[in-house]
Amino acid sequence: GHTGSSAAESVLEQRERALAEVQEHYYREPPRIERGWRHFLITEEGRPLLDMINNVAVVGHSHPHIARTAERQLRLLNTNSRFNYEAIASFGARLADLAPDPLDTVFLVNSGSEATDLAIRLALVATGRSDMVAMSEAYHGWTYASDAVSTSVADNPNALQSRPSWVHTVAAPNPYRGQHRGSDASRYGPEAAAAIDKLAASGQAPAGFIGETYYGNAGGMPLPEGYLAAVYAAVRRHGGLAIADEIQVGYGRLGHWFWGFEQQAVVPDIIAVAKAVGNGVPVGAVITSRAVADKYRDAGYFFSSTGGSPLSSRIGLAVLDIIRDEDLQGNARDVGGHLKARLEELAQRHEIIGAVHGHGLYLGVELVRDRTTLEPASSEANAICDRMLDLGVVIQPTSDRMNVFKVKPPLCIDRSAADFFVDTLDRVLSEGW
Ligand code: PMP
């Protein structure tokens, strides 16, 4: 069809006419972004906006080392991953080194959805089974298998109707709200384990359990203590595999830990990672043991033309160099700690902030109408986002209730920018909600 632009049509109008409606954009009236620099997005008019949500641009926007690396590699070679070139070997080895034993074998893909999809297929093929267990309120991707285990209703409640019968969900282990709160949250792990035992007893022993290792998309908080230990033990007791979705929470963002599963003191059988891995260039990876990869070699299929291409691998290496050289995980811990302390202070003055969750630069600011009932302040969250944008801050809500600000800026953010965010939020909340 005809999608050429006419002179009078705005970029936004053209976008909305040419793209499927489900390919959404932030804000009803989004600013037109032309450039990025570190933790800022810069509009066409040259106005900088503090970017508090960009967990993809982990080393910052327009990083000169990334730009140089991309240009150099594109001038040298970029081809499909079946050729023999150095970058794929060193990137694969580098990723394997980042994972704990016995995870030493890497598959390179292009996105998070591909990574979780492949992780699920590895579990299905390695165990010869067809059932999977996932947490409620989770998001793992849009491809067939990754979408099947995505149980969040935030984006489209109707999407759950097409969930296939091989997906079994356990309760959302939210320690702040939900079935078990506060000290009761210790019950989520044993209950999920019991549900897995029950599945096995009914002849549907699962191929695996997939979950974010930190309660990421659902609210930006740690899972209850011991949760993954209980669930991983149950799934393994019945011969299944534990899949860790580290796509949002892993790669240093939590500050104290490189991987989210370290916070839970467990080691998964399969890690899926993406987003930060390529700093916006499409790169993802699955890391598993040689034993699981060998079972897949015998009975599965995998080929990705551009997964681990010379460009992707070089960028992947450059991102890891920058995270190390600029100590971005340390910065996530330090600036994140400062940010959390300041937000907690804000919570003492503004009733609407029910809680400040999270670690490092993965925080959740949960807005409630009432601190006892925890009624989510979803429409308020939306209005606050619009007002924050007026004042130069990009922030967005997450969770099934869309009432938790996801605070996950590029890891290079400094204290003064963190302070600007808190001061602006303070100002907006003081305007009255
Ligand atoms: N898993 C998690 C936890 C995610 O947050 C996302 C993306 N929001 C995905 C998987 C899918 O990644 P992608 O968008 O790169 O396909």
UniProtKB/TrEMBL annotation:
Family: Belongs to the class-III pyridoxal-phosphate-dependent aminotransferase family.
Protein name: 4-aminobutyrate aminotransferase
Residue span relative to the full protein: 539 to 971 of 971
